[in-house]
Amino acid sequence: MAAPKKGRSHGAQSRPGRTLAFILIAMVALTGGMFLSGHTTPRLGIDLAGGTSITLKAKSEPGQKNAVNQTNMNTAVSIIERRVNGLGVTESEVQTQGSDNIIVNIPKGTNEAQAREQVGTTAQLYFRPVLTVAAGAPTPEPSASPSGSGKNKATDKATDGGKGKASSTPTPTPTASATSQGRAVTDGLKADSSPSPSASASASGKPTPSASPTPDAATAALQKKFTDLDCTDKAARSQVTSGVKPEDTAVACGKNSSGQWEKYILGPAEVNGKDVDKAQATINQQTGAWVVNMDFTSGGSKKFAKITSKLSQQQPPMNQFAIVLDGDVVSAPSVSSTLSGSAEISGSFDQQSAQDLANVLSYGALPLSFQEQSVTTVTAALGGEQLHAGLIAGAIGLLLVVIYLVVYYRGLALIALASLLVSAVLTYVIMTLLGPAIGFALNLPAVCGAIVAIGITADSFIVFFERIRDEIREGRSLRPSVERAWPRARRTILVSDFVSFLAAAVLFVVTVGKVQGFAFTLGLTTVLDVVVVFLFTKPLMTILARKKFFANGHPWSGLDPKRLGAKPPLRRTRRAPGSPVGPVNTKEA
Fold first, then answer.
1. 118: phi > 0 → left, psi -120 to 50 → alpha, else beta; which?
2. Is 415 helix (H, G, I), strand (E, B) or coil?
3. Is pLDDT of 474 > 90?
4. pLDDT for the residue 150
5. φ, ψ dihedrals at 277, nearest 5°
6. Which of 2, 16, 170, 390 is 20 to 30 A distant from 511 in Cα terms?
7. Alpha helices in 123-252 (DSSP H)
8. Burial class of residue 560 in the structure, from the number of CB atoms within 10 Å of its CB (0-12 exposed, 13-18 middle, 19+ buried)
9. CA–CA–CA angle 351, 352, 357 (5° rounding)
C-alpha cells in the first residue's frame, strides 16, 4: 500500500524556528543601527519638546490675481525652510496648512526674535558679478599649478559652470574654467561697477594684491574677511551674510557641483529678483539636457544686458554672475555674450536640481507677502507634562489589556505579551530611526496613535486564539487546531488591518499638521502588527503547541478542553473489506 503523501503546508510549518530567528535578527540589526546612528530616543515634536510655532498667512501683492496657489506656496515653504536652517536650527518644521497658511515650528534653543524676523520677510534674490572664487575650506598648498576644473563650457547663453545644485559629475570640456583655487582676483569694482582684472590669485586661492595702488581700509578688511572665512562652518556662513546691503561688495558662500563649499567676493547687485518675470525648468530640444530658462521684465532685461555685456569681456571667474538668495550663492553661471530679455542656464542638471533652481529664481518675483497671524510658545515643562500624561494613558491602556488577557486566556497571555513586547521594540526603534531619516517627530497625536495601536495588535491575537479554541471545541487536539485555525484567522487579521491602514492613509492625505502624526503612527503600527503576527506570534504558537503544558490542555494553559466545552472526538469502527453494508441476517432460511 502506498505511503500517504505529506501536505505542503505541513512542511512549511515544520520549521517555525527559522521564522522566529529571522525576526529576532532583524530586531537586533535595527537596534544596532539605532545605537550606531547616535540617536537613541525618538525626535520629539514642538508640543512635547517645547519651542515656538509661527503661523503665516499668504497675501497677493497689489495687482496680482490668483497668486496664492500651491506652486507658490510650496516654493515659499522651501525658502523659509532654508532660512530657518540657516539659523542653525536642525529640527524645524515648515509646512503648509490649508490653501494660504504656512506653519513654522521652531524647537527650543533658537533665537525666537531672529527666527520671526527671518520667516516673516520676503526672500532677497540678487544677481551679483563674481570677483573672486576660492576653496571654502582650508586646503593644503598645491605642489603644482592648478589645472582646469572641468566645468561646462560657456555657450552663447548663460552656462551654469557646475553650479546650481547640478549633479556631482559635470561634463568636462576642452576649455577648462578656473578651478576653486588660483582664480582671478580683484580688489573691488571700478566706479562703473565693472570688474577690474588688476590682480591675480595665489596658488592657495587667497587674494593677492596687484601692483595697483594700496587698497583702502575697507577693501583690506574685505580681503581679510574673505581669507579667514571657513564656509564649512554654519555659524560663519550665517554671520558673513548679516548686514550686507545690495550696493555693497560682499563675501558669500556656495556649494559646487561636487558638494564642496566655495567662497566668493561678489560685486554690488546689478539685478534683483523682482526683475525676473518667470523661470522654469525645461529640456533643451537639441541636447536633451535639463536647463533653466529665465525671462526678465522690460527693466530687468536692460539691467541684465548691461551686466552681461561687461562680464562677457572678462576672463574666468570674472565672467560669472552669482545668483544669491539670502546671502548664499545658489548658482554662478558664466557668460560669453551679451544677453537680454531671456537667458538659459545649462549645466549638469537633473530634473530635480533644475526645478530647484527655477523655484529659487521664481521666488524673487513671487507675488506673495506674508502676514504673521499668530505666535505660540510652548514651554518644555508643558510639553513634558503632556508627554507624561500620554505615557500614563498608554500604561493604563496596556495594563487593562494585560489583565484581560491573563484572566481570560491564561497561558496564552504569555504569547500575547511577548508579541506586544516585540511590537513595542520595533515601533520604538523604527520611530527613532525615522527621525534623522525623514524628519519624523513624535508629537502628542502620534503618541495617541501608538496607544490606539495597542488595541489593534491585541485584537489580532484574540482573533487567532479564538479560532484555535473553536477547533478544540470541535474535538481536535491542539497541533491540528493551530494549523486549521491559522488560515481562517489570517484572512480576518489581514482584512481588519487593511481597513485600519486605509483609514490611516486617507487621514494622512487629507489632513495637515499634527493630525498627520496620528495617521502616520497608526499606519506604521498597523503594518508592524501584520509583521509581528505572521513572523512571531504564529511561529511561537506552533512551537508551544508541541509542549505538554499546552498540548495536554493544562487548566492554566487557556486551552483546557473541559473548560472550553469540547465535544468528544468522533470514533468510527472499521469494517472489513468486502463486508456488506447494513445489518447482516445470520438466520438460515
1. alpha
2. helix
3. no
4. 34
5. -75, -50
6. 390
7. 217-228, 234-240
8. middle
9. 100
Lookup: cell for 37? 546612528
Which cell goes with 93? 518644521
**Structural contact between residues 150 and 315, judged by C-beta atoms closer than 8 angstroms:** no
Q: What DSSP designation does 231 have? A: T
DSSP state of 2: P
Residue 401 and residue 409: Cα distance in Å, rounded?
11
For every residue of 436-482, DSSP letters joined together read: HHH---B-HHHHHHHHHHHHHHHHHHHHHHHHHHHHHHTT--HHHHH
Dist CA 97 CA 55 (whole Å): 9
DSSP codes of every residue in 63-104: T--S--SHHHHHHHHHHHHHHHHHTT-SS-EEEEETTTEEEE
65 CB-contact burial (10 Å; exposed 0-12 / middle 13-18 / buried 19+)? exposed
By three-state DSSP, how is residue 370 classified? strand
Residue 415 has pLDDT above 70, yes or no: yes
Rounded Cα gap, residues 471 and 479, in angstroms: 10
Q: Which residues contact 68 (CB under 8 A, 6 or more apart)?
A: 58, 59, 60, 99, 100, 368
Is the pTM higher than 0.90? The answer reads no
Contacts of 132 (CB under 8 A, 6+ apart): 183, 184, 185, 186, 201, 207, 226, 264, 265, 317
Contact 130, 318 (CB under 8 A): yes
Task: Give residue 105's pLDDT.
Answer: 79
**Which cell is 32 given?**
544596532
CB 312 within 8 A of CB 335: yes
Q: Which three cell numbers stand for residue 113?
A: 526674535
Q: What is the pLDDT of residues 63-100, one digit of tens each?
A: 667 778 887 788 778 777 766 665 555 556 788 887 88
The helix or strand, by DSSP H or E, that contains position 396, with its residue range, turns out to be: helix 380-409
Rg (CA), the chain: 35
The string of pLDDT tens digits covering residues 366-395 is 557 778 788 877 776 666 777 788 788 888
